[in-house]
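Form P-L/3: holo structure prediction, ligand BV8.
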Amino acid sequence: MQTTNGAFPTEELRGRFARARRVCVLTGAGVSAESGIPTFRGGGGAAVWKGLPFDVISSAEMVERDLQAVWEWFDFRREVIRVVRPNPAHEALARWQDLFEDFTLVTQNIDGLHQAAGSSEVIELHGNIWRARCVMCGRLEHLSHDHSQMRSPRCTNCEGEMRPDVVLFGEIVPPEAFERAMLKAQACELFFVVGTSALVYPAAAIPEMAQTAGAFVVEINPELTPLSGFCNEVINGKAGEILPLFDAR
Ligand code: BV8
Ligand code: ZN
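OUTPUT (holo model):
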């Protein structure tokens, strides 16, 4: 593992970036931090909502127990996300999709900021906060950005209850999304893992799959994580400052 203390990546990595044909990136909450969205586990402890820890309020069990509380929690987060903009990290990754023969962006984030920055075909492992899903028929509804619905709207198709179309703790990541992310990670030459504490599975297993399949794995994070020990290069820095350096004109 080579660590650069926030300076531009090594000559080797610059060369790899310039020559790469297949690149895959996995992002976490850290790429949205510079947009002003608090991360889950940074800043002195996990997110808490009305005294409930994040992994309790954002859980399958809570949807069963108190769907209204889950809606209020997500309405609150939409209020935060609604007014923020993509930052240079999102913008750099949106540019990268035109630099390589095959570029894949996989995110654990549900804020939609990658798409707002211009990224297309984003693999959303944990869903999207701007979508709701009917618990009965699975119909999807897009929630408008201009107002939050404090009540869980009823399904326009079957009157069933709607829930956030987000993967909560104790729920499975959509198999087709995970499968596609895994295949792309195993097929790429260069893999970036950016802004994740690498604590949440199965997403946190993807970088190691990439390396086992032969990819050069780069971590970009101000802090070390459980992945840092096996990454080929660890860049201790902020995503919004480091990512734009790679394709600076
Ligand atoms: C599953 C959507 C099994 C919701 C999220 C008990 C019961 C059930 C399951 C489990 C259990 N115990 C463990 C598990 C497994 C669990 C898990 O892994 N738990 C962990 C915490 C131990 N996983 C699951 O439950 C998954 N499902 O296992 O299903 C199953 C199997 C079969 C059948 C049924 C069930 C589902 C996991 C998905 C949960 N949903 N989000 C919501 O958002 O409300 S996870 C949540 O954490 C977010 O999606 C987030 O993205 C994700 C990971 O967090 P990070 O993105 O890494 O963010 P974090 O704050 O942690 O770190 C930020 C990082 O950024 C830091 O490293 C920081 O240094 C860095 N940073 C800060 N600033 C910057 C920066 N980096 C760069 N630039 C900066 N400027
Ligand atoms: Zn329905």
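COMMENT: Residues 2-37+85-126+173-246 form a domain with the Rossmann fold fold (CATH 3.40.50.1220).
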